[in-house]
Amino acid sequence: MSEALDPRKTFGEALVEVGEKNENIIALSADSSSGSQLTAFKNRFPDRHIEFGIMEQGITGFASGLATTGKIPFFVAITPFVTARSFEMFRNDLGYMRQNVKIVGRCSGLTYNTLGPTHQSLDDLALIRTIPGVVVLSPGDPVEIKKVVHAAAEHIGPVYIRIGSPKMPVLFEEDYNFTIGKGILMKDGSDVTLIGTGTLLYQAYSAAGLLAKDGIKARLINIHTIKPLDKEIIIKAARETGKIVVVEEHYIAGGLGGAVAETVTETFPVPVKRIGVDDQFGSNGPYDQLIGLYGLRAEQIAETVKKFIM
Amino acid sequence: MYSLNENDELRLKRNALNIRKNILRLIKADQAGHLGGALSSVEIMTALYFQIMKVDPKNPRWEQRDRFVLSAGHKCLALYSTLAEKGFFDKSLLDTYGSLKSIFPGHPDMHKVPGVESNTGALGHGLSIGGGMAMGLKLSGLKARVYIILGDGELAEGSNWEAAAAASHHGLDNLLALIDRNGLQIGGRTTDVMSYEPLDERWCSFGWSVREVDGHNLKSLVKAMSAIPFEEGKPSLIIADTIKSKGFSFAEDKANYHYWKATTEEIEQAEKDLAEIERRLDG
Q: How far is A64 from chain B (nearest CA, A)?
C-alpha cells in the first residue's frame, strides 16, 4: 500500500476512458458536475454532457428514456439524492424497465461528515439491492473504482455504483482480475473471516493486519459486488473459519452485513457480526472521528473481532 | 394544415368503436378494470395510432418509429385495445385479461406486451421517460416523435413539473404531451381534489406551446396533432377535454367508474350502448 487517491477524481478519469471507447456513453448532471467530477468528461465530450439542474427524480426518468434510444447514461450525484429521493424512479424506470443506465452515488456513507444526515447515505445499499436485476457495486480502492466503471459500461442493464469522497489508499495492482459478482480473497486465514467493502475496505484490511500481530489469522475478503452477491466465497468462508465479521460504512440493517447474514443463515449458519452504523442518523464532526464514533476505525474493528471470536 | 376527409373520419370512428369493444372484452374477461380513463382517452389513442404515428405492428422495435408513453398507466385497457386493433397481437389474447397466463397486467409492461414502450402505473413518471426518449432521438439524429398521454389528476405529482421544465429547457419540440382532461379522479372533481387549473397558463409558463381541443372530436384532434411542433424549439401540449367513461351511458362523467367492478346488467347496457354507436355509424 502506497499512495492515496481521490475517489471522485478517479471516477471522473475512468468515465472519460469509457467515453473514449463508446460514443453512446453520456453523462447527466444535477447541477453537480464539478462535485461529481464530470468536468473532465464535459470538456472532452461537450455534446455528451447534459445538465438538468436539481431534479434527480426527473433525471432518473430521462435516463430511462435516453436508454431506450441506445444511449448509456451515467447519472452521477450525491448518493441520497440518486437513491432515497428518487427510489421509485430507480425501481420502476430503471429496474422494472431493465434499462442500461448507470447511477453513481458519490460522497456515500458518512463522507459529508459535517453536513449531517440529509447528505449522508447509510441506507443506499439496503434500498437498491432490493431492486430485481440491478447490479450494485461498491469499489474498495482507486484501482477498483476504474475497474468498476469499465465493467459497468460494458454490462448491459442497470448498475448502481457507490463511491465515497475521502482519499482512498491503493490496495490493488493495476492488472488484478476484477469480475462483477466475484469476491476477492485478499488474505487467507482460518480463525475468522473479515469481509470489507467500498469506503471501509482499507479499515478492514488494516484490522486484519493488527489481528495478525496478535496471532489471529483473519481471512480478508473484498466484496465489491453487493448484488449479485458471491455466495460461494461467503459460504466457503463460513465453513472454513466458522465466524464472519462484515465491515461497511452503512447501516447494519439491510446492507452487506444483512446480505451476508441472509446467505449463511439459509445455507451454513455461523455467527455473523455486522460492523456499521446502528439504528440512528449519522452525527457530525471530522471524518476520522465520526467513523470512530461508530467503531469503524481499524483498531476498533480489530478489538470488536477479538471480542467476537473469544 | 391537415384536415380529415369524411371517409377518413368514418374510418377512425370505426376504429374508436372497435377499441371500445376491445375494452369491454378485456373487462368481461376479469369482470373489473380501470374503465373511466380508458374510455375517455379512446379518441386520442385512435387519432395517434390510426392517423398520426409512424409505427409498424410487425416490427414493434423499428428504430425510426414514433414512440408512445402512457404516463397515466391505469388507462392501459385503452392502450391494449388500441394495439390489438392496430395488429400488434391477436385480439383473442384480450380474453385472458386477469388470468395468470395473461400478458396484460393492470398497468403496462413493455416486456410482456408487444408495442408497449414503457412501464408505467406509478403516476408522474411518463413525462420524464418520454422526455428522455425525445432527447435521445434528437441526439441520434432521428426524426421520430414522442407522444405522451397524461391524466389531469396525475398532474398533482410534482415530478411532472420537473419534466415539463426540462423538456422546455432542452427544446424538445419532437415531443407532444396530451392531457386527457376528463375532470374526474377517484376522489371527485379534479378541481376540487387538487386543482392545477388554469392548465393552459401553467404549461405556457413552463415554456410549452399549448392548444385546447375537444378530446372526442377526431377531426379536431388530428388537426391539432398534425400541426406539431406548434412552435419550433418548444414542446407541444394538447389539452383534450373529454368525458370520463365516454360511450358507456350509465358511467359517463361519474368518478365511481374510475375502477369498474362490472355487474351483468351494466355489461349488457354497455353492449347496447356500443351497438347503438355502431348502428349510427352504419346508418
A: 6
Question: Does A93 contact B111 at a Cβ distance shorter than 8 Å?
Answer: no
- Would you tell me how many other CB atoms lie within 10 Å of the CB of residue A43? 10
The candidate with the shortest Cα–Cα distance to B272, out of B46, A108, B244, B264, is: B264
Contact A65 B142 (CB under 8 A): no
Contact A103, A188 (CB under 8 A): no
Average pLDDT, chain A: 97
- For B181, the grid coordinates are 382532461
Angle at A153 between CA B62 and CA A131, to 5 degrees: 80
Q: Report chain B's terminal Cα–Cα distance, integer Å.
A: 30
Determine the pLDDT at residue B283. 82
- Output the CA angle A223-A226-A231, nearest 5 degrees: 70
Looking at chain A, which residues constitute the CATH 3.40.50.970 domain(s)?
4-169
Q: How far is B84 from chain A (nearest CA, A)?
A: 22
The fold adopted by the segment(s) A184-309 is Rossmann fold (3.40.50)
Q: Does A132 touch chain B (CB under 8 A)?
A: no
pLDDT of residue B3: 81
- CB contact under 8 Å between A97 and B119, yes or no, is yes
Task: Report the complex ipTM.
Answer: 0.97
Which structural domain range is residue B93 located in?
6-282
Q: Which of B67, B110, B116, B139 is the best residue to mutate to test the A interface, defined by the most A CB atoms within 10 Å of its own CB? A: B139
Q: Where are the alpha helices (DSSP H) in chain A?
A: 7-21, 39-44, 56-67, 79-82, 87-89, 124-128, 142-154, 201-213, 231-241, 256-267, 287-293, 298-309
What phi, psi does A195 have (nearest 5°)? -110, 125
- How many interface pairs between A and B have CB atoms less than 8 angstroms apart? 99
Please tell me the CATH code under which domain A4-169 is placed.
3.40.50.970
CATH number of residue B121's parent domain: 3.40.50.970
Question: How many C-beta atoms lie closer than 10 Å to residue B266's C-beta?
Answer: 17
**Least CB-CB distance to B140: which of A53, A58, A69?**
A69
Which pLDDT score, from 0 to 100, does residue A258 have?
Answer: 98
Identity at B78, one-letter amino acid code: A
Closest alpha carbon to A52 in B128, B158, B126, B130:
B128
Q: How far apart are CA A164 and CA A108, in angstroms?
A: 5
Percent with pLDDT over 90 in chain A = 97
Give chain B's domain count. Answer: 1
∠ CA(A295), CA(A300), CA(A306), 5° rounding? Answer: 120
C-alpha cell at position B211? 392548444
> Residue B1: inside a domain, yes or no?
no
Cα separation, A233 vs A230, in Å, equals 6
- The residues on B that touch A, with CB distances below 8 Å, are 67, 110-111, 117-122, 125, 127-137, 139-140, 142, 159, 162-163, 165-166, 169-170
All CATH 3.40.50.920 domain ranges of chain A, comma separated, are 184-309
In terms of CA atoms, which chain A residue is nearest residue B164?
A58
